[in-house]
Description:
This protein has ten helices and seven strands. Helix 3 runs antiparallel to helix 4 (about 60-100), helix 3 (about 30-50) packs parallel to helix 10 (about 255-280) and helix 4 crosses helix 6. It is about 55% helix and about 10% strand.
Amino acid sequence: MSLDTLPKNLPIHPKAARYLHDVTLNDYSKYLKQCQTELNSTLNQIIDTTLFLDDDLPSALLQSLEDANNNLQDQYCQWKISQNTLQEAKNQYRNDSDKYERITELADWQNYVNPKNTLKGPKSLLDYYKETLDKNQSSTTLSTTKLDEKDKTATLLKILPQVWKDPTAVIRDDKSTNEEEDDIKIEGGSIELICPITCKPFEIPMISKKCGHTFDKQGIITYLGGPHSRASKDCPQTGCSKSVSISDFEIDEVMKLRCQIAMSLKRKQKTNSDSNSIDII
Ligand SMILES: [Zn+2]
């Protein structure tokens, strides 16, 4: 912030007002986003390695990832709060400035900087910032801002212990009813790890951002008319009336994880039954 270029007192001189535009925060959200991408890829590497080694989940390592992710989210919230605060403080500063009479003579200025003669007492932009910050720190809308709206890292970390035991477990994200308690509930039934279009196990599961239905990449691309097609068609999921196009789809990380774990479990079972048969011989 280049606060030095601004007058400490109101009203702002018309020539000084333009400096208000220059008072901005350094945008470090992009670095936080980079960190989160790294974190997510570390998580995927841990999962891959653990699956490859047929090992148990490294809970301490995952806990430290979760802590790091929470820390990133907190920092992002703080940055978002600071940014909003500065904007509000600037607006307030300018509005208040307009309420003061223009200073034409030095004598008036002397009166002005003497707090008892002023509207509220001269305040600097920093004073406005501090006042607004107190208010915004307690604002719930800002303190729940997420770096990545869906926070995939947190989602994966949360569901991991459940799907590790049962890759087809139905998990419902239940944020609305019980915020303090564990958000995740396990319900009856099971998730199909088979694409409804290709009727084969998912290879590259893609989820529709519009309706949350998942199809295999090859299946949905063929359905929509090829990889470069811009066509919109009804979602192929029975009963879904959303119109979707290729750009509405992204990798379904959760389904990918389920499939990876399911494959690993299958491999494990096979190895076990193989070694059992050897034992019998
Ligand atoms: Zn759908």
